[in-house]
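Our collaborator T.R. sent over the components below with a one-line note: 'Predict the complex.' Nothing else. No constraints on interfaces, no templates requested, no preferences about which chain binds where. So this is a plain run: every listed entity goes in together, and whatever single assembly comes back becomes the starting point for the next discussion.
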Amino acid sequence: MTTIPQGAHAVRDQSAAATETTADDADPKLPPPVVYLDERFGVAKGFGLFKKVFPDHWSFLLGEIAMYSLIICLITGTFLTFWFVPSMGHVIYDGSFVPLKGVGMSEAYASTLDISFDIKGGLLIRQLHHWAALLFIVGIALHVARVFFTGAFRKPRELNWVIGTVLSLLACVEGFAGYSLPDDLLSGTGIRAMNGFMSSAPVIGTYMTFFVFGGEFPGESIIPRLYIAHVLLIPAILVGLFAVHIFLVFWHKHTQYPGPGRTNTNVVGFPLLPVYTAKAGGFFFIVFGITALISALVTINPVWAYGPYDPGQVTAGSQPDFYMWFSDGALRLLPGWLEFELWGFTWSFNIFLGSLLLLPLVWTILGVYPFIEQWITGDKREHHLLDRPRNAPVRTAVGAAAISMYLVLAIATINDIIAIKLHLSINDITVALRVLFFVLPVIVFMVVKRLCLSLQRADRETVLHGTESGRIMRTPEGRFYEVHEELNEFDRWHLVQHEAQRPLSLTAGPDTDEYGVDRPVGPLESLRRKLSDFYFKDRIEPVTPSELAAAHHHGEAEALPGGTAQAIEESVDRADETAGLRSDDRH
Amino acid sequence: MSKLATYRRSPIALIVLLFLGLTFTGTAYAAFQPTAPTDAYSAANAAEDVDDVEAGQKLFLANCASCHGKNAEGNGTAGPSLAGVGSAAVDFQVGTGRMPLAAPGVQAPSDPNAVNFSDQEIAQLGAFVDSIGPGPGLPDEEYIDLANADIANGGKIFRTNCAMCHNSSAQGGALTRGKFAPDLMNVEPKHMYEAMLTGPQSMPVFNDYTITPQEKEDVIAFVVNIQEGGNSFGGHDLGSLGPAGDAVFVWTFGVALLVGAAVWLGRKAA
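Returned assembly:
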């Protein structure tokens, strides 16, 4: 940044040389428009941004899928606002879709039909908008999973994780508001469900629904209100928070996967200009292209097939878009006896638990996880190197178990579709899913944790004994053995670079003081120690340099002729060097 | 290491695992398969000429009497009495392959390949059943030719009366304990009319006072319009299952395409 001393930035610095700078003195390499803008806004200062280095990995592009889908939604959504009429005013349809000709409906539904059938390109843009919205949330889900399972939420990125959590919540709310707008039979059923959710709030429920709906359901206010939330309020917050989210990625610099030469204090990759502007810009066109291809070939939300909303009607197979499934599924699984009367009031806990409690609960758990893990580990260091999921077995298992729990709820939403497609009884499916909700997470936790530990063991084996070469050697004495090929230090680095977190019961010192008296441990601290044991009691330590050396000395080496033994000695030395690099990193 | 673990590398381990897996899946399916209700109610059969009645009685004795009784008086849980069900019910049940019932189950599924009677034989069966106790007759040709139908009005009636079980796109829906409202994609207008008139199995009866013959024709025209692709705009309909189809598509094809593109781009040298 020292190469461009002229411009407004320099003026602010009050340096004598800079104040006399004229455009003629500008760096001849800069094109005139840049010089013009630099003199007025100091834009050249921002050029440093283009040198920002980003690491290369496909999983870092998952968040970009969400980002680009959001942009597609903004572009196509603007198009849709030109024709959509957010009103519940009653009209008689007279467009070109014959099966609804002469049917009374709201202006919102009629204008959605017009967009679909009478406005050039309207249906394609509608489908682009809806598919992009689904891909937006798919992208978010994949991105969250990547960040979670690689531990990218650790210090200093906890607050950005919280922002991401809020973004994912807003994305779901935005999606719900969006698919409610056409006022077709399916979306009206969704709004009806939302009305029920709010009514289930103890004491304030009915007041709340009258406030939101401007009177009795359905009223004439909900579509205009959802519209302004969908096109102004939520997108504004969404884009604003997203800007902070992406700014913090720049500010913190991107995390990277561990590898030779990659440390906690550097970022190994390519600069934004030209490599990543080309790659990321190209990826935008790939995402847009794929979304357009899907939208051109596959129908989504065929509102004409559902008909206009009428509170007296409902269609079999009603379900929300997938990101709301878990809440709808919870309602289908909750038993009816949770609704009861007490003190002259009806308490609808069968609805309340699955909606007003569950929805905030899921995002709260998601948001606080980094802080809980940090509290348990007591690890206050910055982490810019990602974990391999297997190297954090309990975190990985907890994440997988939570996903399985979420999936059971989500699957419950389509219990009727499963019943009819697989010729099963819907009642049995519901009972089975109730059991699975409690049992599956436990099984998934155990299986995933064991898998991670086994993979770590396999890593240890590979490091200590190399890979099987398939070559059989015979010694002069007649012994046979298979030659194991050693890993080179670059491959080995991936398998030995991590540190195994130890439980507090090992690291926090003895429970008694020097006189043999029990140290007082508060209930909170005691809980923390239990959780620490839960997280880190079962662990596989990475191979240490001395273990590696020992393995080589006691292993195949003794059977080898002298020359080869010499080579192994050298490789052990190299391994120690590699290990030395590791200890340098972790200070 | 447990004893079991020592066998895991055995060559037959894979076969044993496969066998156990298949056995478990099969057993689990058998356990979850809906069972027949103990008080099965199902309707069937109708009447006209004396010759037809006699011919019908012969057919009835040969094919139906084992469950419905020799005089169609019913036989406990095996089959209900057919007095008063009418020839419309016979035409529907036999004409769609539901009756004679192949096997007891939660409900009789339609099977176009299991229609083993000619139109004349079905009419004779109907005549016999109608002779026992008269019921609704076959629909008037005027109301199933769809010549004067109002599709939009049919849609309104369909969404109010039919969509909650059969789905707004007539794709069918689940009922309790393995019963279901079938999809209407391959149902003939005549059978739709008869179903509304007689209310087979779990379906309610929509007699000519609740839905007039003209309105029935409108409803049938609405469904036939869907059968003929009248709702198919904007590409593949993914089975018209609503957001479920979209979700499956986006989490399979959508994710595969986008993640595939990401992996490709991630591997591309800078």
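Summary for T.R.: The domain at 50-132 of chain B is CATH 1.10.760.10 (Cytochrome Bc1 Complex; Chain D, domain 2).
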